[in-house]
Specification:
Elements: H1 2-9, H2 12-22, E1 25-28, H3 64-72, H4 76-87, H5 98-131, E2 134-139, E3 144-149, E4 158-162, E5 170-176, E6 182-186, H6 188-191, E7 196-200, E8 220-224, E9 235-238, E10 244-247, E11 252-253, E12 258-260, E13 264-271, H7 277-280, H8 291-324, H9 344-358, H10 365-374
Antiparallel strand pairs: 1-8, 2-3, 2-4, 4-13, 5-11, 5-13, 6-7, 6-12, 8-9, 9-10
Helix pairs in contact: 3-5, 4-5, 8-9
């Protein structure tokens, strides 16, 4: 019985591996054909993957304030000056006018936030310009190529590119005006190389005598899921007669490249938007700290440590003085409203906080603000 059970379970293992392997692949069909089991081609919207919209902005209207403050408080100088300003609002230990102490901190936070907002708005304008670039996409309704914005391109669309035109998405090359089925591209936007790269039409399509017609494309493409490897592409194209043709990186036109020395090419979109290899290699806007800022954080930390030591020394001395001369009331010793005096421990704590405010110049604010504005 154990052998039978083991024998029955053995076929399930390859099945699990197969499903795991299939989960790593992507199936792409033409948007001009109805999906399997659907009678209306309009149902193809359910199988759309990512669109081609580009978004590199860091903030939204709701996330700007908390996210920007979180980034600014990575700078220890900001945390320190905000703490000192808030400490002035405690009546028992304040040494300066609370509003006056808070004004410089709010000013530097506001100016830095405005600078970050302007930079993010510049990214938004750049995204808008790129998203509204035009390209030729085959329309099922009009049965011809029409001009659409880059952001309207979907996986499975057929795109026609002309010479010196930037490629809007990762496209599988299916047709070229070159007699040998070649297409030359410039990849300077991806790897900085200005020499032209050669791309080849998928085997079986370059031998077509007539012009490629997207309406007759009924094959199914199986390829790897989106990844950031610019040097590799694996997949196959399955025809209706069961024939399979292998695909490799020489058949791909990557987003950001430019078509050169080729009059026109046609291809089907495999990856779009943030699933393209170019954008997967771009981690997007992130908070960056310069070496000067990191050094300033270290210097501020040492200054704060020195400030704490001096304030602690003063607090201990004041506490010992109050304990020793508690019965002898000094002229400058202000009693509580009920006539009682502070205990030595309470007096030491108040003295510690007061000395932190008085000696706050240990961390000079002008150099810190200059560095913060420069970064």
């Amino acid at each position: 019985m154990e052998r039978d059970t083991a024998a029955a379970e053995e076929p399930a293992v390859p099945g699990r591996r197969l499903r795991r392997r299939e989960g790593r692949t992507r199936t792409v069909r033409s948007n001009l054909q109805p999906p399997p089991g659907a009678e209306d081609p309009a149902a193809k919207g359910a199988r759309h993957l990512a669109d081609n919209r580009l978004k590199t902005t860091k903030y939204t209207a709701l996330s700007f304030l908390p996210k920007n403050l979180f980034e600014q408080f990575h700078r220890l100088a900001n945390v320190y000056f905000v703490f000192i300003a808030l400490l002035n609002f405690v009546p028992a230990v304040n040494a300066f006018q609370p509003g006056l102490a808070l004004a410089p901190v709010l000013f530097i936070l506001a100016v830095t936030a405005f600078k970050d907002l302007w930079e993010d708005y510049s990214r938004h304008r750049s995204d808008h310009e790129i998203n509204h670039l035009g390209c030729l996409v085959f329309s099922r309704e009009e049965k011809r190529y029409v001009t659409r914005f880059w952001k309207e391109i979907r996986v499975g669309d057929f795109v026609r590119l002309r010479c010196n035109e930037i490629i809007p998405a990762d496209i599988l090359l299916l047709s070229s005006s070159d007699p040998d089925g070649l297409c030359h591209i410039e990849t300077a936007n991806l790897d900085g190389e200005t020499n032209l790269k050669r791309r080849q039409v998928v085997r079986g399509f370059s031998e077509l005598v007539s012009e490629f017609n997207p309406l007759t494309f009924t094959s199914v493409i199986e390829c790897e899921r989106p990844n950031n490897d610019l040097t590799r592409f694996r997949g196959c194209i399955k025809h209706e007669d069961g024939e399979k043709v292998g695909l490799h990186k020489e058949n791909m036109l990557l987003r950001g490249c430019t078509v050169r020395n080729t009059e026109a090419v046609v291809g089907i979109v495999i990856y779009a938007g943030h699933e393209t290899k170019a954008l997967l290699n771009n981690s997007g806007p992130r908070y960056k700290r310069s070496r000067l800022e990191r050094q300033m954080n270290c210097d501020v930390l040492w200054c704060v440590l020195l400030l704490v030591c001096m304030s602690l020394f003063s607090a201990v001395g004041h506490g010992l003085w109050v304990q020793r001369y508690q019965e002898k009331k000094a002229l400058f010793d202000v009693p509580e409203p009920d006539g009682s005096s502070l205990s030595p421990v309470t007096a030491a704590v108040y003295s510690f906080l007061t000395m932190i405010i008085v000696l706050q110049v240990t961390v000079p604010s002008p150099p810190c603000f200059t560095v913060l504005m420069g970064t």
